[in-house]
Amino acid sequence: MTGIVISVTAAAEGGTVTDLDSRPAGPASTGSRERERAERILDAAGELLVAWGYPRITVEDVARRAGVGKGTVYLHFSTKELLFLAVLIRAKARIIERLAAGVRADPSAVLLSSAARSAYLWVHEEPIFRATLLGDDDTLGALSRSAAENLPDLLDVRDHALLAHVEVLREHGLVRTDQSSALQVHAYESILTGFVTIEPLSPSTVPALEDNADMIAHVIRAAFELPGSPESVRAAAPRVSAIYQRLLDRLNSAVPTAREIHRHKRT
Length: 267
What we know:
- By secondary structure, the protein is mainly α.
- The protein is built from twelve helices and no strands.
- Helix 1 (27-52) crosses helix 4, helix 5 (112-125) runs antiparallel to helix 10 (209-224) and helix 8 (152-171) packs antiparallel against helix 11.
- The longest helix is centred in the N-terminal third of the chain and has 26 residues, at 27-52.
- The protein is globular, with a radius of gyration of 20 Å.
- 37% of the residues are buried.
């Protein structure tokens, strides 16, 4: 997913650039080389996150695994937190891409119960999310705080996408309307997050993955959904797919670099 990477835009903060990275390049090849290098850094950071866990990793470790200098990492990502936030954004984009494609392939995937079931399974299939959500609390807390501080607009876009999804389903009679859509979104996220984050706290009581996914779907269905006609489901699907495609496009341009973050904070 090369489109998710923003090219180099900031000065290095310490460290040196390897000979490979410092070779002269013509204007036509520079952008492509920078994107490939940033992807390599993200790949290395993701691999280390899965293998070692967030607290043990240093920027030097990532640079070494990516085959670049420490300063080159800082050219793309001004802090360790922003680097791993970018890793999470890329993993999130993969899940949103699956959701949008799923709705296009099968309109019934638009239902909240189906979306929650799929999201639960996909989180467990995605190594980055397993390492973050099912690992130590410090990792999730540090990266959540970094996202809230540095990319509040991106969090707003994510939240608005789910809200828009719910409101489309309400318009088509697929979700109850005796509760506010904002309350439903909060409850939906709380249920899904609770099912995931309880697992490390009580591993011996966690049901089989598929059974747990089915239970999530049951809880969401009982809490929010109304029986709807196949026609209503098919009518809602293109609108919901478009909502998540827009979110995917936003995620694909959102990996932060030092200058992006500083520009965001000024506006």
